[in-house]
Amino acid sequence: MDPSTFAHSVTGMVIVAIIFAPLIIAVIAVLAIILAMVNRRHKERMKMIEQGMMPPPRPKQKGNYYGLLITGAIFLAFGLALFAGELAERGNDFTGGFIVGFVGLAMLACFAIIRIARKSEPADKAEDRPPAPPPLPPQS
Hints:
Low-confidence stretches: none
Structural class: mainly alpha
Strand content: under 5%
Number of helices: 4
């Protein structure tokens, strides 16, 4: 059977749907969970404001830069694998391996730069202060 004929048949469409359906459902489920969490947090803050209480400020989040390390290492390894594959094949088109490898090297360099910059930052003074007292209930 010709591959293009199979792709246009009902069986081919069902198989493609079975392959991609879990991925699509997982993405929709993750988005629904995130939306529910944001909505719940918003309702809690609105309820506190309605009762006359001041909701606590949102904590400052420092970004996690370890994703650069992991992604950079994966890209670098993938680029080296492409480069080695081209060498083993005795080809002369190394651009794929070089591009992916240098993207990986750039991500690893970004990780190193961010890590050095974060270590040289002064510590937050907010951690030294005692926590703020809880808000008082409204007076009647």
